[in-house]
Amino acid sequence: MKYKLLLLFILTTMSLGMRAQISVQAIPNIVINSIFDLPPFERAICCIKYYEGMHRKKDYPYVGYGHQIRAGEKYSSDMSLNEADALLRKDLKEYCSIFRNYGKDSLLLAVLAYNVGPYRILGCKGKHPRPKSNLLKKIEFGIRDFKEEYIQFCHWKGKKIPSIEQRRMVELLLLYVQ
């Protein structure tokens, strides 16, 4: 019950706060009364913006809404909100393409990958091998009850972080498709 009330509060806050931040070019001539009135991709964008906030010089190597600068990239920590929005959309589309084979779960996995990195989900071989996540294994087997596995991505430096756990619950509420 505690989490349901918290999620309701967060979603209400997000809905009210995001009205001013939603790009007019993305959704022309539409009145937004709730975040659930938005298409799923726009909900994902709003959610990431809400939780990431704008990263500035002190947040290096992160810029915009949490983009991690890669080798050869030259983004300024003083980028405009429009530039940050465009970069976030580019990154999220890239992650969606990585997870496109997962159909209705591709956006949810992309949002998670934006925050934790795709190889925490996909696994990898090489110098620092990592197994495929239990979340992805369940999705591949067609098991739709993966809430627990999704929310498990709430640890930082080995500790469970309540604010990240809340973020995962909100992501599920906004983007999970039955």
Q: Give the proportion of residues in helices.
A: 40-55%
> CATH architecture, please?
Orthogonal Bundle
CATH topology: Lysozyme
Task: Quote the distance from N terminus to C terminus.
Answer: 22 Å
The number of distinct structural domains comes to: 1
Principal-axes geometry comes out as: globular
Beta content: under 5%
Lay out the secondary structure.
Elements: H1 2-18, H2 40-52, E1 62-63, E2 67-68, H3 81-98, H4 106-116, H5 118-122, H6 134-140, H7 147-151, E3 155-156, E4 159-160, H8 162-175
Helix pairs in contact: 1-8, 2-8, 3-4, 4-8
Description:
By secondary structure, the protein is mainly α. It has one domain: Orthogonal Bundle (Lysozyme). 51% of the residues lie in helices and 4% in strands. It has helices at residues 2-18, 40-52, 81-98, 106-116, 118-122, 134-140, 147-151, 162-175; strands spanning 62-63, 67-68, 155-156, 159-160. The chain has a two-stranded antiparallel ribbon. Strands 3-4 form a two-stranded antiparallel ribbon. Strand 1 (62-63) and strand 2 form a beta hairpin. The radius of gyration is 16 Å and the shape is globular.
Salient structural properties:
single chain, two-stranded antiparallel ribbon, 51% helix, Lysozyme, 178 residues, two-stranded antiparallel sheet, 4 strands, mainly alpha, disordered N terminus
